[in-house]
Amino acid sequence: MLRMLSVVFLSALVITACNDDDSTTNGKGKASIYITDAPIDDANVSAVVISVNRVEANGPEGWETIEEFEEPVSIDLLSYQNGEAFLLTENEMDAGTYSEVRLILNIKKKVDDQLQNEGSYIEYIDGSKEPLFVPSGAQSGYKAKGEFTIPEGGVVGITLDFDVRKAVVKAGSSGNFILKPTIRLVANQDAAMINGHFNIDSLDSAGYDKVIAFAYENDTFAESEMDEPEEGEVRFANAVTSSVVVDGDFTLAFINSGTYDLYFAAYDENGEFVELIGSYEDVTLEAGAKLELDLGLDLLN
Q1: In the prediction, which pLDDT does 139 show?
Q2: Residue 288 burial (CB count, 10 A)
Q3: What's this model's pTM, rounded to 2 decimal places?
Q4: Cα–Cα distance, 13 to 36 (Å, whole number)
Q5: Which three-class secondary structure state does DSSP give residue 275?
Q6: Are 216 and 263 in contact (CB under 8 A)?
Q7: Which residues have CB under 8 Å from 62's CB, separation 6+?
Q8: What is the DSSP string of 109-133?
């Protein structure tokens, strides 16, 4: 079943833990679980779809089922970028501190003796599809680690950032595509956003086909991030998140509060890395902040 799209923006996702008339006390609170993504490098990929049977969280009493769906919920991860997110579930849970969330995925058959997620696949712009394998996706689940607290009688929003740019890799000689566990968990009350605005004339005059913005935690970028990646890896692997610059605009969303350095890279029309354009460093974000950033090539290091 392809659930109706539920698109929300960061300003609506920053849900503080507060009491309301709809919340139940007696040791319970509510959690809203969202899914978002960062852009993929391969320009030929049009969709990355996963299919979810059940959502669980590891909390005060161990693993707890948040929701088990009557029919698997299918989500095209590439449809939820730049601050948009898919509301997967909103349910009552035990109050307390949780350390991880996991998605139990829809696996129904084997292909070449490997479990296949029947509803999980990659689709290309020519309409062809490749099955997407997620090791242990039906047993131990696809896990996102990160701490969040549900107060008694309160409501908390949690976003799972898949970042399929890092997660989807081809597994050696088998040719199978695997979804690696690179998912990032963000408590929305601590989330911040950067809305960037680039001087489009400066980009056009430089002749760049495609520019991607990468956010790094302060002073964590290394020159080796640009090296030709090994099999199953990507360039800019340690970036927290990324965004394609479209008509001069980019959005880096669901970032925890802290200080970040932004790096900008040029790619050709086929999605191949060309060069590092420059960086804009020491950007400080507070929880819940939405920072508007005006940039030009002359402002980059």
Answers
A1: 58
A2: 16
A3: 0.79
A4: 12
A5: strand
A6: yes
A7: none
A8: EEETTEEE-TT-EEEETTS-EEEEE
